[in-house]
Write a structure and sequence with these properties.
The chain is mostly helical. Helices cover about 70% and strands about 0% of the residues. The longest helix has about 35 residues. It contains 8 helices and no strands. It is globular and about 60 Å long.
Length: about 270
């Protein structure tokens, strides 16, 4: 992940890596859906009854927020577009395609899918190992894209304010990516449950970045009270209320889920 993230722009990362990443993810999803159908036809239970609690479902909301939070990269993508006026059209197309695929996967997974779709594939099987390798390839590219976005912003907004420009661009970038890699490793191992990790990330970062902050900025642009409804800004106010409710419920649920899994399965920095 560290090596791939040395590409300092999304253009350098290229379309090929993105296509390979999405293709790998598609194969894994198809593997999971096929296993879900096999389990349902053989009457093998695929989910844990404890996952039906209200707080666990709130944690799942955080995972949904994580899944649909890819538009947080829009500003970085727009920064590199040759014609920035097409950014809204690109975002609309991307979210429409993603939303459609998301609904189709939910329907294809059946009535009793596991809480983490990958768990539909039995462990210690060749299919599980193939899915693990493909998912690792997808995560590497996804990490590189997100790393490029945050390191680019850190370089522009933090580095130049706190340090001189004596270091070359490559050295600065390497130092920023080292810090980010260590931070990512620490967080990922402190919360050694993939579904809990993505739920927490979705609730505390994706929801504010993609729903809450845009609503606040738009209301500030209109010059209306930020937290009080007005007749001319009702839609942005409803989005504000929805995003705050979404964020609070998902955060509480994800923290509860992490605490439960720490107590019942394994401790922080223990691989699971």
């Amino acid at each position: 992940m560290f090596v791939v993230s040395q590409s300092r722009t999304m253009a350098r990362l290229g379309r090929t890596a993105t296509v390979l990443s999405l293709s790998a993810l598609l194969i894994v999803v198809l593997q999971c859906l096929w296993e879900c159908q096999q389990q349902q036809t053989t009457n093998i239970p695929a989910n844990d009854p404890s996952e039906k609690s209200l707080l666990r479902q709130c944690s799942a909301l955080g995972s949904i927020g994580f899944a649909v939070g890819s538009q947080k990269l829009l500003l970085n993508i727009r920064h590199e577009l040759s014609d920035r006026r097409v950014a809204p059209k690109s975002l609309a197309m991307a979210l429409s395609v993603f939303g459609t695929c998301y609904v189709l996967i939910i329907l294809a997974a059946g009535k009793h899918p596991p809480s983490l779709l990958l768990d539909a594939i039995p462990q210690h099987t060749i299919n599980r190992r193939i899915a693990g390798i493909l998912l690792w390839a997808h995560v590497v590219v996804s990490y590189a894209i997100n790393s490029q976005a945050i390191c680019s912003s850190m370089d522009r907004l933090i580095w130049h304010r706190l340090f001189s420009d004596t270091a070359s661009a490559k050295v600065r970038w390497m130092m920023l990516t080292v810090v980010l890699a260590v931070a990512a490793y620490t967080v990922a191992n402190a919360i050694p449950f993939f579904k809990d990790l993505v739920a927490l990330i979705g609730s505390v970062t994706s929801v504010p970045l993609t729903l809450l902050l845009p609503a606040l900025f738009w209301r500030r642009h209109l010059g209306v009270p930020l937290l009080w409804p007005t007749r001319d800004s009702m839609y942005s106010y409803l989005l504000l209320v929805f995003s705050i409710t979404f964020m609070v419920a998902a955060t509480i649920g994800s923290l509860y889920s992490i605490q439960q899994d720490w107590s019942n399965q394994t401790a922080p920095f223990a691989c699971h």
